[in-house]
Amino acid sequence: MNTTFRIVCPTDFSECSLNAIEYAAKLGEMYQSELYLFHVPDAEDYKKLSFRDLHSGGQYSFIKKKLNSLVEIVANESIPNGLKSCKGEFKEGKTVSTILEFVKDVKANLIVIGTEGVNDFKKNYVGTRSSKIVEKSEIDVLVIPRKVFFKTPKKFVYATDYIEEDKLAIQKVVEMASFWESEIDIVHVSTKVNSIDKSLHMTMVEEIKPFIKYSKINYVLKSYRDEPGLGLENYLIISKGDMLVTLSKKKSWFEQIFTNNLSRKMSYFINKPLLVIKNLS
């Protein structure tokens, strides 16, 4: 049985996607994975880049050159450090659906994608390319903001809403965090900590502790007078968290974070990567 880990990193050759490639390559080293750099050509963009007729093949020459250059850079740096392989692929089509089809074709385990940051989410998490991929993907997605360059994550912050699936999701976080011996803060933020919250929190800790075999885990219950999502943002800053992790399940933090009113106020997407866990198998 082939158990090779596979990462797909969509790229449009922008600074935003280059930062995502850096994260994808570093994770690829840790997972000893196959990495695919994938591009979906945009005809309008290539009209600006070439004076040739779009059907002459000139734009494809440009794409191949750019992809080959990126593949060479990644391969030279990361294959000696554990990355199994790096390949560049491109295919015409609608951006989101074409990316997700490619992800299925190669049986990928993780998508790493760049985003312009808070502006990408200011109206709703549905409506932009990056956020649509997060919404529609069946596998985990790591979202990297434009101005975030790779650094070894010292602390992961997992936002919990006390659901049973947290146990499996946290195992995935532990796997990633253990590569760098990072801390994990399992955090629940409510508008007012009451006896019910405290009881749920204690129950969660009692259930998870024997289930998760990792020593660097902290269990945190915080109250915040405004929306819980803003409290989570505040906690990320105060705790110096390097990556936010959320489980995409109904009535979970994922939905709370991306509601219309809340996302207009939040700014952590400018400088914090977000790992959205979609698949618990």
From TrEMBL:
<dbReference type="InterPro" id="IPR006015">
    <property type="entry name" value="Universal_stress_UspA"/>
</dbReference>
<dbReference type="InterPro" id="IPR006016">
    <property type="entry name" value="UspA"/>
</dbReference>
<dbReference type="Pfam" id="PF00582">
    <property type="entry name" value="Usp"/>
</dbReference>
<comment type="similarity">
    <text>Belongs to the universal stress protein A family.</text>
</comment>
<protein>
    <submittedName>
        <fullName>Nucleotide-binding universal stress protein, UspA family</fullName>
    </submittedName>
</protein>
<feature type="domain" description="UspA">
    <location>
        <begin position="6"/>
        <end position="145"/>
    </location>
</feature>
